[in-house]
């Protein structure tokens, strides 16, 4: 989800298709300096003075025919900072976590 037409809010949620382990792995690959709690359900990252806290929660399975896709509810909460800093951090994170597909 890109915030093309408007400002990036201070907090928002997304539903993604991944297990907690997959999400944590992909996040570490996209942002090597990410800090995770012991259970890898809460993460924090920084770019300059801007911070972002990410919390994940399993949201069941989505079924498409015989396919079962694990779902996560992902909460994003930015620390104090200007909207352009939020936009830059989120754009970098989204690019880093982008997967191939069509």
Provide structural commentary.
- With 102 residues, the protein is α+β, with helices and mostly antiparallel strands.
- The chain has one domain (11-98): Ribosomal Protein S8, Chain: A, domain 1, CATH 3.30.1370.80.
- The protein has helices at residues 20-30, 83-97; strands spanning 11-17, 35-36, 42-47, 50-64, 67-78.
- A five-stranded antiparallel beta sheet has the order 1-5-4-3-2.
- A hairpin with a 2-residue loop joins strand 4 (50-64) and strand 5 (67-78).
- Helix 1 (20-30) crosses helix 2.
- The longest helix is centred in the C-terminal third of the chain and has 15 residues, at 83-97.
- The chain is globular, with a radius of gyration of 14 Å.
- The protein starts with 10 loop residues before the first strand and ends in a 5-residue tail after the last helix.
**Can you tell me the CATH architecture?**
2-Layer Sandwich
Percentage of residues in helical conformation: 25-40%
Classify the beta-strand content into a percent band: 35-45%
CATH level 3 topology: Ribosomal Protein S8, Chain: A, domain 1
- Which ranges are low-confidence, i.e. pLDDT below 50, for 5 or more consecutive residues? none
Task: Give the integer mean of the pLDDT values.
Answer: 90
The total tally of domains equals 1
Q: What's the helix count?
A: 2
User: Looking at the structure, what is the overall shape?
Assistant: globular
Q: In the CATH hierarchy, what is the superfamily?
A: Molybdopterin cofactor biosynthesis MoaD-related, C-terminal domain
The side-by-side strand order for the widest beta sheet comes to 1-5-4-3-2
Briefly note the structural class of the backbone.
Answer: alpha+beta
Distance between the termini: 16 Å
How many beta strands in the DSSP annotation? Answer: 5
Radius of gyration: 14 Å
The CATH class name reads: Alpha Beta
Q: SSE string, helix = H, strand = E?
A: EHEEEEH
Quaternary state of the chains: single chain
Sheet of most strands: 5 strands, antiparallel
């Amino acid at each position: 989800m890109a915030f093309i037409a408007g400002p990036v809010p201070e907090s928002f949620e997304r539903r993604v298709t991944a297990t907690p382990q997959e999400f944590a792995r992909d996040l570490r690959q996209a942002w090597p300096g990410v800090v995770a709690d012991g259970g890898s359900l809460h993460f924090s990252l920084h770019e300059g003075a801007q911070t972002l806290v990410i919390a994940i929660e399993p949201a069941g399975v989505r079924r498409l025919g015989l396919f079962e896709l694990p779902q996560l509810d992902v909460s994003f909460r930015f620390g104090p900072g200007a909207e352009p800093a939020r936009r830059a951090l989120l754009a970098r994170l989204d690019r880093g976590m982008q997967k191939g597909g069509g």
